[in-house]
Amino acid sequence: MKRAAAEIVPLLTLDRAAAKPLYRQLYEGFREAILTGRLGAGQRLPSTRSLAGELQVSRLPVLTAFEQLLAEGYFESRAGAGTFVARSLADPQPASGGQAGGRTPPARQGRRAVAANPGLPLARHEPWLRGWGAFRVSQIAVDHFPLQVWSGLVARHGRNPRASQMLYGDPMGDHRFRETLAAYLRTSRGVRCAPEQILVTSGSQHALAIAARVLLDPGNEVWVEEPGYPGARNALATAGARLVPVPVDEEGLDVAAGFARGPRARAAYVTPSHQYPLGATLTASRRLQLLDWAQRSGAWILEDDYDSEYRYESQPIAALQGLDRDSRVVYIGTFSKVLFPALRVGYLVAPADLVERFAAMREAIDDFPPALYQAVLTDFLAEGHFARHLRRMRLLYRERRGALVDALRSESGTAFQVLGERAGMHLTAILGAGAHDRRISEQAARQGLWAMPLSACYLGEPSRSGLVLGYGGTGIPEILDGVRRLGGLLTSRRAPG
């Protein structure tokens, strides 16, 4: 395919008979061209109209592919000039004054000692975690779950269990379930994995705890996002890790800052598709920086992909693990957000050469995962119920998200800056100077509003004040009333006298 030099693009081969959609073929073709250097940083791209004409396809798949590449940071749009390969991809290495290479890889398994970060908070003592209702983070729309379908599958396997389901099982999990899950992860999340690499756990927290015990020795430094997920910090700390808070900006984890703050870190915990709690997507340049750091320093990346299926302005962001060519990423996922948290089924994808160590650690902790819900989930995925449920919930959560954003931006007398509204089931409302988010959250809890203070997500001194607002389990009337009452709390605190 030839164009003027200013708009040269690599040869893109489309298979119109393939099951893979055309937009996905285009997206993967451009991404691979960028990662292999066939498209350089700053290179201009043809317009979507002209590219569609040359490829003899509808403009829609071209637009969809471009939107996804823009969302993930591979492309950038310049007003009046067109679309270009992102200039930030020119140098994937983070700016740092230290030396990254030459280290031996970290110990891949070791016994844990007393946690290096003492003083873990007691569970669920915070007022904003004591109830269920408006704005509770991680609360799902339980009343929209396909309970009849699910109950039928549970009854099917409960009445006629296989003999193997009643005996001791594989520490990694049921193989049929892992086969089905591997197919889903490869297709929908871009994860590179075989069924043998998947370890079934009791949620993502359990997966993270196992990974920490396999990969880290007591006292090893681990980068954690600042602000970030408190549960992940606790899991890492109880494994003996020394936590290094690394700031997050609109591009996700600041890799250069991580190297400056923790040059000897043996791992980094990240939420690249939807940073918790600020909602940023780790850009393509930052992803490449992080992978380069892990490869050169022999470190590990713990990727928590907790709610990536819910994205409202583009297709779901591909997993960081899919870019990993050096087996440095441990991919962690869960069904808690996309189905329901009481299910307690999560998983991790281990590097192929560490599967035996992960299996041994899983067996030492808890023998093997329960069989019944693995069998139910296998059918729920294979028979298409899961995909249909996701489509319905995306529409529902998009509607609730829109109502919450509109209400926050129109609340009289209250200056809310909204972050992270493009994905997930929560967003963060940044408060103005002088606002004390913990006090506001405590007052809100007394009114039955379960808004979490942003400051609770900081390991160090908070640099911002805000409220983390869940909307997954909150209906639109509750959202509108809740925002009005939150605005009243803020207004009353500013009132003189």
Distance between the termini: 72 Å
- Tell me the name of the CATH class of the largest domain: Alpha Beta
What is the CATH third-level topology name of the largest domain? Aspartate Aminotransferase, domain 2
Helical proportion, percent range: 25-40%
In CATH, the homologous superfamily of the largest domain goes by the name: Type I PLP-dependent aspartate aminotransferase-like (Major domain)
SS class: alpha/beta
Q: Label the overall shape.
A: globular
Radius of gyration: 23 Å
Largest sheet: 8 strands, mixed
Textual characterization of the structure:
- By secondary structure, this protein is an alpha/beta fold.
- It has 3 domains: 5-90, Arc Repressor Mutant, subunit A, CATH 1.10.10; 127-139 and 392-494, Aspartate Aminotransferase, domain 1, CATH 3.90.1150.10; 170-370, Type I PLP-dependent aspartate aminotransferase-like (Major domain) (Aspartate Aminotransferase, domain 2), CATH 3.40.640.10.
- It is built from 14 helices and 14 strands.
- The chain has helices at residues 22-35, 48-55, 59-71, 147-159, 175-189, 204-215, 230-238, 255-261, 284-297, 355-366, 372-382, 385-410, 437-446, 476-494; strands at residues 75-78, 82-85, 198-201, 221-226, 242-249, 252-253, 267-270, 300-304, 329-334, 346-349, 417-419, 426-430, 452-453, 466-470.
- Strand 7 (267-270), helix 9 and strand 8 form a beta-alpha-beta unit.
- The N and C termini lie far apart (72 Å).
